[in-house]
C-alpha cells in the first residue's frame, strides 16, 4: 500500500482537525475555518455560523469545481480567500485559518513571530509572510492573502485578524499552524523574562543534520512488562499533547524495559495520534524492524546507561519552561516546597550538546537533578516511572508559569537555604 495515500474522507478530516484545534483553545466557537482541495478540484470547507466545538461530518460543505455547493449549510464566509490561495499556489492542498491568541497578538502589533527560536519550528513553519488588512470575507482580503502566498510564503499573519497557513495535506497544515502558534506563545512568555536568543543558520543546520543510526531486528514476543509500558507511554504522550506539554511535531518519551532495552516514541509521527504499535523497541545498537525511533533515541540511551535508577525520560517543549530555554533568565525552582522536592536543582544545557555528545548530555541529569533546561530546545525530565516523569514535567511547567506570572506582580522571593535544608531532611533528599 502507498503510505502517502490518505484514506480519511475530507469531511472526517476537517471535523477531527477542527475538534482538535478547538480543544487546544486555538480558536473560538465562531472563529476559524479549514479546507481541503481534492484531486478533482473540489474544495471541502467548514461551514458558516456553526459551532466549531460541535461539528459533525454532515456539517462540512463541498464547493465543487463548477461552483455548485453540496451541504446542509453555506460555506465559510472566508471561502474567497481559500479559493484565491489555491489558485495562487497549486502545491497547497489544505488551509488552516484561526485566531489563536498569541498569533492574534502579533497580528494586532503588525509583527510576524521569529521562528528561529527552535530548529523544528523554523523548519515546519516554512517561509513567513504578512498580509495587509481587508474586510473579512471580502475579495480584497483574498487578493491580499493570495499575493502573500504567491511569494512562496507558507505561514501568513493577517493584519488585525489572525493567521492562515497552507500545507500539502491537512495534517501538515495543522502541524505548521500548531508550531507557528507555539513559537508565538513562547516569544510572548520569553519577552517577560529578558532578551530572547535566536538561532543562526549554523545552529539550525546542526539540528537539521542530526540523525540516528540503528540496525534493525525482530524482537522476541513482548512481555507483560513491555506491553504495559507501551500502554503507559501512549496514554501519557496523548495526555501531554492535550495539556499542551508536548506538540505534535516535537518531543520524545521513553521507558526502560531492562538494562539494555527501552521503548521510545517514533520519529515523524503526530504525537497525539501515537498508538501502541507505533512505539519503537530499542536494544543496544538495534531498533525494532520497520520502525524509526525518535532522533533523540541515542540521547535517551546515554542517560539510561549512565543512570541505572532512571526508568523513564521525556524531552518536551512546554511553553513556559521553554521560554526560559530561549533566554538567559535563571530558572530557580525554590518557589514552593513541591517544586523543589520534585525538581531539585535544574541545570542548563548549552545549545547543541545533545547533537555533539550524548554522554555529555547525560551528565546534566542525575538523582539530585532530574530535570534540565535545553537551550533553545525545551527540557529534559527523568523519573522512576512513566507516571513519575510525567508528574515532574507537569510540576516543571507549572513552576515556570508561576514564576513568569509572578514577575508581572513583583519581585520573586525564593525559599531561603534554611527552608531548603528543612525540606532535604523532611523528604530524605540527597
UniProtKB/TrEMBL annotation:
<feature type="domain" description="Class II aldolase/adducin N-terminal">
    <location>
        <begin position="231"/>
        <end position="404"/>
    </location>
</feature>
<dbReference type="GO" id="GO:0046872">
    <property type="term" value="F:metal ion binding"/>
</dbReference>
<keyword id="KW-0479">Metal-binding</keyword>
<dbReference type="InterPro" id="IPR050197">
    <property type="entry name" value="Aldolase_class_II_sugar_metab"/>
</dbReference>
<dbReference type="Pfam" id="PF00596">
    <property type="entry name" value="Aldolase_II"/>
</dbReference>
<dbReference type="InterPro" id="IPR036409">
    <property type="entry name" value="Aldolase_II/adducin_N_sf"/>
</dbReference>
<dbReference type="InterPro" id="IPR001303">
    <property type="entry name" value="Aldolase_II/adducin_N"/>
</dbReference>
<protein>
    <submittedName>
        <fullName>L-fuculose phosphate aldolase</fullName>
        <ecNumber>4.1.2.17</ecNumber>
    </submittedName>
</protein>
<keyword id="KW-0456">Lyase</keyword>
<feature type="domain" description="Class II aldolase/adducin N-terminal">
    <location>
        <begin position="12"/>
        <end position="188"/>
    </location>
</feature>
<dbReference type="GO" id="GO:0019323">
    <property type="term" value="P:pentose catabolic process"/>
</dbReference>
<dbReference type="GO" id="GO:0008738">
    <property type="term" value="F:L-fuculose-phosphate aldolase activity"/>
</dbReference>
<dbReference type="GO" id="GO:0005829">
    <property type="term" value="C:cytosol"/>
</dbReference>
Amino acid at each position: 500500500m502507498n503510505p502517502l495515500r490518505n484514506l480519511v474522507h475530507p469531511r472526517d478530516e476537517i471535523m477531527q482537525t477542527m475538534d482538535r484545534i478547538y480543544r487546544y483553545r486555538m480558536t473560538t466557537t465562531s472563529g476559524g475555518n479549514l479546507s481541503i482541495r481534492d484531486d478533482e478540484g473540489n474544495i471541502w470547507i467548514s461551514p458558516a455560523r456553526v459551532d466549531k466545538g460541535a461539528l459533525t461530518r454532515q456539517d462540512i460543505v463541498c464547493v465543487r469545481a463548477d461552483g455548485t455547493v453540496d451541504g446542509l449549510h453555506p460555506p465559510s464566509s472566508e471561502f474567497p480567500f481559500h479559493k484565491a490561495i489555491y489558485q495562487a499556489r497549486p502545491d497547497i492542498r489544505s488551509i488552516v485559518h484561526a485566531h489563536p491568541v498569541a498569533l492574534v497578538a502579533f497580528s494586532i502589533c503588525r509583527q510576524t513571530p521569529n521562528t528561529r527560536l527552535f530548529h523544528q519550528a523554523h523548519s515546519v513553519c516554512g517561509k513567513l509572510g504578512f498580509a495587509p488588512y481587508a474586510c473579512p470575507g471580502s475579495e480584497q482580503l483574498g487578493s491580499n492573502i493570495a499575493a502573500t502566498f504567491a511569494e512562496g510564503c507558507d505561514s501568513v499573519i493577517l493584519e488585525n485578524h489572525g493567521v492562515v497557513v497552507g500545507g500539502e495535506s491537512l495534517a501538515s497544515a495543522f502541524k505548521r499552524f500548531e508550531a507557528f502558534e507555539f513559537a508565538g506563545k513562547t516569544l510572548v512568555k520569553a519577552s517577560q523574562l529578558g532578551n530572547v536568543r535566536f538561532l543562526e543558520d549554523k545552529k539550525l543546520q546542526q539540528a537539521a543534520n542530526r540523525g540516528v543510526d540503528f540496525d534493525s531486528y525482530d524482537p522476541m514476543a513482548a512481555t507483560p512488562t513491555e506491553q504495559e509500558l507501551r500502554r503507559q507511554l501512549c496514554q501519557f504522550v496523548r495526555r501531554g499533547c492535550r495539556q499542551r506539554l508536548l506538540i505534535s511535531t516535537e518531543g520524545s518519551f521513553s521507558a526502560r524495559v531492562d538494562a539494555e532495552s527501552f521503548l521510545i516514541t517514533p520519529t515523524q509521527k503526530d504525537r497525539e495520534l501515537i498508538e501502541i504499535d507505533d512505539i519503537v523497541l530499542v536494544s543496544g545498537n538495534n531498533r525494532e524492524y520497520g520502525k524509526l525511533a525518535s532522533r533523540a533515541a541515542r540521547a535517551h540511551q546515554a542517560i539510561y546507561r549512565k543512570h541505572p535508577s532512571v526508568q523513564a525520560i521525556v524531552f518536551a517543549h512546554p511553553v513556559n519552561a521553554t521560554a526560559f530555554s530561549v533566554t538567559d533568565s535563571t530558572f530557580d525552582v525554590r518557589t514552593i516546597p513541591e517544586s523543589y522536592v520534585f525538581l531539585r536543582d535544574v541545570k542548563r544545557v548549552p545549545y547543541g550538546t545533545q547533537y555533539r555528545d550524548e554522554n555529555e548530555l547525560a551528565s546534566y541529569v542525575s538523582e539530585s537533578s532530574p530535570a534540565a533546561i535545553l537551550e533553545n530546545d525545551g527540557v529534559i525530565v527523568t523519573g522512576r516511572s512513566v507516571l513519575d516523569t510525567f508528574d515532574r514535567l507537569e510540576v516543571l511547567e507549572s513552576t515556570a508559569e508561576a514564576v513568569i506570572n509572578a514577575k508581572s506582580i513583583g519581585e520573586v522571593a525564593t525559599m531561603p537555604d534554611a527552608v531548603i535544608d528543612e525540606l532535604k531532611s523532611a523528604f530524605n533528599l540527597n
